[in-house]
UniProtKB/TrEMBL annotation:
UniProt cross-references to Pfam families, sorted A to Z: HD
Name of the featured protein: HD domain-containing protein
Domain (HD): residue spans on this chain: 28-128
Signal peptide, first to last residue: none
Source organism of this protein record: bioreactor metagenome
CDD domains with a match to the protein in the record: HDc (cd00077)
Lineage: unclassified sequences, metagenomes, ecological metagenomes
SUPFAM superfamilies: HD-domain/PDEase-like (SSF109604)
């Protein structure tokens, strides 16, 4: 069974540290740990199995930049299974975590359990508000995307993030999402004003 340290999940965190160290800063271990914190907060309110939620959050993005034939969620679920086996978790825990990781992004899998829905929601909460804005620019900036125009930071916000609220599953996450989303909306309208000033 997993070691009992200060943080009962430290063994898993240690196992993923190196993997996340190779990811972009918007999808690093810090992101995973923020998603864990959101997940825990939502999970307590929604009466979820917190172990599943927290493990899934810590592991959810380890598959990014994996093989091109798989989505990052598919790669992540497979990698997560291997790590949890090594850490000695029971089979039912591993399967529940894998299912949540598999359906955390909109890539063909719908979250079917409460814990999977909470992971999905928690991940979206880290893409709104000040942290969401910072992540958006660090991620897409690294990929060379411009601030405005087609295939830009702004278009990603307008076309993707702006629609997240349509897919949030839990009542608790919806309440947490709202003020952060308004912050993002305000940021983009202020930025648009700055942009117009230039011309
Ligand atoms: Fe992801
Ligand atoms: Fe994520």
């Amino acid at each position: 069974m997993p070691e009992t340290n200060q943080d009962p999940l430290s063994q898993v965190i240690n196992a993923v540290q190196g993997i996340y160290g190779r990811k972009d800063q918007a999808h690093d271990l810090e992101h995973a740990l923020r998603v864990r914190a959101w997940g825990k907060q939502i999970g307590i309110q929604e009466g979820a199995d917190l172990l599943i939620v927290e493990l899934a959050a810590i592991l959810h993005d380890i598959g990014r930049s994996g093989t091109l034939s798989k989505t990052h969620a598919e790669s992540g679920a497979a990698l997560a299974g291997g790590i949890l086996h090594k850490c000695g978790y029971p089979e039912d825990t591993i399967e529940a975590v894998k299912a949540a990781v598999l359906s955390h992004s909109r890539e063909g899998y719908e979250p079917e359990t409460l814990e999977a829905r909470i992971l999905y929601d928690a991940d979206k909460l880290d893409f709104v508000g000040p942290m969401g804005i910072a992540r958006l620019f660090v991620w897409l900036g690294k990929e060379g995307k411009p601030f405005f125009g087609p295939d830009s930071c702004e278009s990603f916000y307008r076309e993707r993030i702006r629609h997240y609220h349509e897919h949030i599953h839990t009542q608790t996450a919806r309440a947490l999402f709202e003020p952060l989303f308004l912050y993002s909306e305000n940021f983009w309208s202020e930025l648009e004003k700055m942009r117009l000033k230039k011309g």
